[in-house]
Design goal:
The chain has 191 residues and is an all-alpha fold. The chain is built from nine helices and no strands. Helix 1 crosses helix 3 and helix 3 packs across helix 4. It starts with a helix and ends in a 16-residue tail after the last helix.
Length: 191
């Protein structure tokens, strides 16, 4: 957009320089002809399509002319002001960034693998292990990735708790025929 605008400005400057050598009668006749052409175009086209360099040029030219002369433009003064505000805003604002950058597929797979292979690790631990491997991921990102994959927090990811595991072993040990009684005996042994 920069080069087309420079070309347009250069053409207009050269046209202004050429006008200095023309007579006043010729300039007035040219203005009358151009106004007539403009009136014809306004009757035929409901709305002209302007390119971005055209808009920049018209917005800049509007700053040089008094407001009473803005009627000669193809567009309304409100439109010119809107274009000028956009031009100034684009110059003084930073590019819009929307949210955090997306987590790559490799990082997502590694988070899920670490969570499945280490069910007792929480979000902080997984994020710390990834940081040690050279991946920068926050704990909340780990939580979101695990939630989308259907893996919950540590308590929900585990199979059995320790207490449930010991109960299951007792039930299993009492059901086998070769069980050994591990309870302390209160009667003395006879030899």
């Amino acid at each position: 957009m920069f080069w087309p605008f420079c070309y347009l400005v250069l053409r207009r400057v050269l046209q202004l320089a050429a006008l200095r050598f023309r007579s006043d009668e010729f300039k007035e006749l040219e203005i009358v002809v151009l106004r007539h052409e403009l009136a014809v175009l306004r009757r035929q086209l409901p709305r002209p399509e302007l390119s971005p360099p055209d808009r920049v040029f018209l917005a800049a030219a509007s700053r040089l002319l008094p407001r009473e002369r803005w009627r000669s433009f193809v567009v309304t003064p409100t439109t010119l002001l809107r274009w000028h505000r956009r031009l100034v805003a684009r110059h003084w604002t930073y590019p819009h960034r929307v949210g955090r950058p997306a987590v790559g597929g490799e990082t997502r797979d590694l988070v899920l693998r670490l969570a499945r292979e280490n069910p007792r690790w929480g979000y902080q631990r997984i994020a710390g292990e990834l940081r040690g491997l050279g991946f920068t991921v926050s704990a909340s990102t780990v939580r979101n990735l695990l939630g989308r994959a259907g893996l919950g927090p540590v308590g929900q990811r585990l199979g059995l708790s320790w207490r449930e595991f010991v109960r299951a072993l007792r039930v299993l040990a009492s059901a086998t025929p070769l069980s050994v009684d591990t309870r302390a005996r209160t009667e003395p042994r006879v030899r």
